[in-house]
Design brief:
The protein has 153 residues and is α+β, with helices and mostly antiparallel strands. 39% of the residues lie in helices and 23% in strands. α1 packs antiparallel against α2 and α2 runs antiparallel to α3. 24% of the residues are buried.
């Protein structure tokens, strides 16, 4: 059984506490970062050495992506305490799914395709204005919604 909304939520403005497992290990979500000047890095869940606060930890113990992590949260198989309610867990799952979809679309527009294979007869879809709109408007909106849940509850 999960205990919802019982933990402090944020540390140093860089990480958001998601919750704690049965071994009292804290799981932290790293805030979004604008990487390589063309895409967003986000959705990274970390645990830290000695289970310390991120600002005092010497190293990251584990690193995983939120898209696989949230399934464990919703099913209550990973965390026994969280910083959000059950209904907020479902909202987070929805928002992160939107993030991953829009991030891929923006990357496709930025690069002109998925680069799985040579374009050949396939039309290039490069559209830097669409990529810019997704990166500057749509994804930040999603980040703010996620931050509201994890920071304010």
């Amino acid at each position: 059984m999960i205990e919802y909304a019982v933990l402090d939520k944020k540390e140093n403005g860089r990480y958001y506490l998601l919750g704690q497992d049965g071994n009292c290990t804290n799981y932290w979500l790293k805030e979004p970062s604008w990487d390589c000047e063309w895409y967003w890095g986000f959705g990274y869940v970390h645990t830290f050495t000695l289970n310390d606060l991120p600002s005092r930890a010497r190293d990251i113990d584990s690193h995983e992506h939120i898209n696989s992590f949230l399934g464990w949260v919703i099913s209550a198989e990973r965390l026994v305490k969280t910083t959000f309610s059950e209904s907020e867990a479902w909202k987070l799952a929805e928002l992160f799914k939107r993030f991953y979809i829009l991030k891929e679309v923006a990357e496709c527009y930025h690069r002109g395709g998925t680069h799985i294979a040579s374009l050949g007869d396939v039309d290039e879809v490069k559209d830097l204005e669409k990529a810019k709109h997704i990166n500057e408007v749509e994804l930040p909106y999603i980040f703010n919604k996620i931050k509201q849940i994890l920071n304010e509850g």
